[in-house]
């Protein structure tokens, strides 16, 4: 008899992955809010320092750090979007299936990169 190949992760496995993704999403959203507030300068980030050296440093690096924070926020928004898409794949029961090979993505990889859509095998074929 042919080897029984798993076509998808079990509902129990999907539930565990969903929990992991929701945890990562909560943290990612908090990080995103911090980034947004820092580049919008919504909050006073303790710049009311009496040290003139500190003040000069703050003003000199303000533009650069705003740009850096904006870039970080854009990457973080993409990460949150990728996590949301992973949740959709869990609902559709297609989560963890490589979009190139159709094989299951290694669960260890999914724990590290829960929004992965490619197996290591497929990723290596791209490079």
From TrEMBL:
UniProtKB keywords: Metal-binding, Zinc, Zinc-finger
ZnF (dksA C4-type) ranges: 98-122
Region (Disordered): 38-68
Organism this protein belongs to: Aquimarina brevivitae
UniProt name for this protein: TraR/DksA family transcriptional regulator
Keyword Cytoplasm: no
Molecular function, one GO term: zinc ion binding
Domain Zinc finger DksA/TraR C4-type: 94-123
Compositionally biased spans, kind Polar residues: 38-53
